[in-house]
Amino acid sequence: MLSLALASMMEEVQAQSGAVYLLNADPPVLEMAVMAGLPRTFAAPWERVTLHAPVPVAEAVRGRRLVWVGDAQEMARSYPRVAVVLPYPFALAAVPVATESAVYGAVFLTWPGTRPHGLTDAEREHLTAACRRLAVRLERAVEASIPVHPEPDLPAAPAIGGVPGTLGAVEAVRMAARLPYGLCSLDLYGRVGYANPAAADLMGVPVSRLLGTQLWTAVPWLNDPLYEDRYRAALFSQHTTSFAALRPPGDWLSFQLYPSRTGLSVRINRARGVSRPGGTAPEAAGAPARLVTISQVVSLTGALSEAVGVRDVVRLIADEIAPTVGSRAQVVLASRAGRLHVLGHHGYPQPYAVERFEGMPLSERTPGTQVLQTGVPAFFESREELERLYPSRQSTRDGFAAWAFLPLIASGRPVGTCVLAYDAPHSFSTEERAVLTSLAGLVAQALDRALLYDAKNRLAHGLQEALLPHSLPALPGVAAAARYLPATRGMDIGGDFYDLVPARGTAAAVIGDVQGHNVTAAALMGQVRTAVRAYTAVGQEPEEVMRSTNRLLIDLGAELLVSCLYLRLDAAGGRAVLARAGHPPPLLRGPDGTVRVLDLPGGPLLGVDASAAYPCTEVALDPGALLVLYTDGLVESPGVDLEESVGELARRVAEAGDLPLDELADRLVGQDADAGERPDDVALLLLRTGG
């Protein structure tokens, strides 16, 4: 059923290759059931795909829509991890196999980069309808309790190496035998179907050893992923590719690959004038890395390089590594103060089976503590093997039947242990153990970075919380609300600040911005805020508070400049006195909903001129008036005029100014709070007089 449906779709839209995935509900993973047109090894990193994976088939299922990727550039922009593994010119379409009520899988199809245009409306409709029909058939199979199994990939014909049966073919073979250069015919899997005597002579391998085997397997010095990659590039792009290879001890040969949808023709010549200074010949066959393994490692490296915090690393192990190696559950452990610490886990039906190890002394004899202390991986192919070596595990069963305990070692020191659990007995081959150990090294590097990031993040947030007011005081006749958002660049900490201070029957409010988004800026911000509170407490007028703070910064020799807006608010008297030092103008919303931008006269930034003056301006406040104080991070955007941004903020305040202050504050900073990246800090202070 699957093969016929796939072949029909490929024929209708003239696709080069394609595959059908079936959705496994527990856990929710897309598993490749059949592939056609190209070897399955080309798609090995994506034979099992989680629904969260950033690949086209997963996105097609998540969005219930056809996903089209037109060329290599679009693939690199939208799916960089796919582009890293398959950096060839080709187009791809991914379509969900779904009914109105359920998703059963997905299909992808590819075309060479020579395809002149995208999918036509008719092709889109055909693919969508064909996948819908396949979904209906799968739905009926489910209802009838008929299992749907993976099917043999297409094409699956063996390599052809027999004697031609027609006179013309015989003559063609004779002609090829007389040519002075080598000729080989490879099928889609790279297996040799024909080689003339010159090819065998040039490569130093008899024709009998070439036929039916992959070229890079039969010829030891061609067993290099670089050469296999040229074969992949030719098949994917359907463009002629070439490379030069050194046949030991010193003969260079040139290979030209002419692709078609049925295979490749290879022309082999002696290369002239080729040299590789300081280079050496590729290693002879022994235990070279297969390209599929390299592809998987490249893909996983790309995934782990995107991890930021520890949670990201744990999630990527579950989403990327576990499906690749067939693991059902995972745990990441670390040590702290001589005890085990569970950094994260996934896939355990009963979380208690993992969480009970939290705080366990490293002196306890368990696989997790042993691997963490020794740095030596441990593989247990059955429960009996584990319990024989660690009898205590008989009383702490977790429901799994095989385990790989992998030490996570970065820069020569252990940073944790990754535990992969399997739901059935599992035999770990030598190659698999090597691959898992290599993957553990990649995970260790990502985890080491993530632990450092989380530690810095906790430090930054703790420092920021200590320097900003924990809450605003309740003052008679004044309602207040404030918000602060750190910049997402740098250390996630900044120099924006605000404060509200009782001042002898009135209220003093301040908002400011110290240059920078680092610890230095935050420390200076704390000094400025403390100074303003001190000068307010001794009864200085607004202009004096600003002058005193300015002189303090200059006396301290601070290299950073500070913008600031200070006001003394007399709610009972219905007035406010404001002083400004290079800060964005505040907004005043009247009880009738009109909003004014208070573009007040002021002085320079604090810390510039010791003799600078900061003139004050008195503003009348009606009952119910709203003052909006903010830093430039709320209104500045690249390429947008500042006056336009301030005007837009005024419009939003006019529309929503009657809301409760906390709700209004959330609305005004909402766009910045949801932004994935904030180049600057954002501080906001709202003050409303009673009425």
User: Beta-strand percentage?
Assistant: 25-35%
Alpha carbon gyration radius: 34 Å
Q: Strands of the biggest beta sheet: in what spatial order?
A: 3-2-1-6-5-4
| Tally of helical segments | 20
| Main beta-sheet annotation | 6 strands, antiparallel
N-C termini distance = 75 Å
- Assembly type of the shown chains? single chain
Explain the overall architecture:
With 691 residues, the chain is of the alpha+beta class. 36% of the residues lie in helices and 26% in strands. The protein has 20 helices and 26 strands. The protein has a 6-stranded antiparallel sheet. Strands 8-7-11-10-9 form a 5-stranded antiparallel sheet. Strands 13-12-16-15-14 form a 5-stranded antiparallel sheet, sandwiched between helices. A hairpin with a 2-residue loop joins β10 and β11 (263-270). α16 (430-467) packs parallel to α17. The model is unreliable at 156-164 and 275-292 (pLDDT under 50).
Write the layout of secondary structure elements.
Blueprint: H1 2-13, E1 17-25, E2 28-36, E3 48-50, H2 56-63, E4 67-69, H3 72-78, H4 80-85, E5 90-98, E6 103-112, H5 121-143, H6 167-178, E7 182-186, E8 192-195, H7 197-203, H8 207-210, H9 215-218, H10 225-237, E9 241-247, E10 251-260, E11 263-270, H11 291-305, H12 310-325, E12 329-336, E13 339-346, H13 352-355, H14 367-374, E14 378-380, H15 383-389, E15 402-410, E16 413-422, H16 430-467, E17 478-485, E18 496-503, E19 506-514, H17 519-537, H18 542-556, E20 562-570, E21 575-581, E22 587-589, E23 595-597, E24 616-620, E25 626-630, H19 642-656, H20 661-674, E26 682-689
Helix pairs in contact: 1-5, 11-12, 11-16, 12-16, 16-17, 17-18
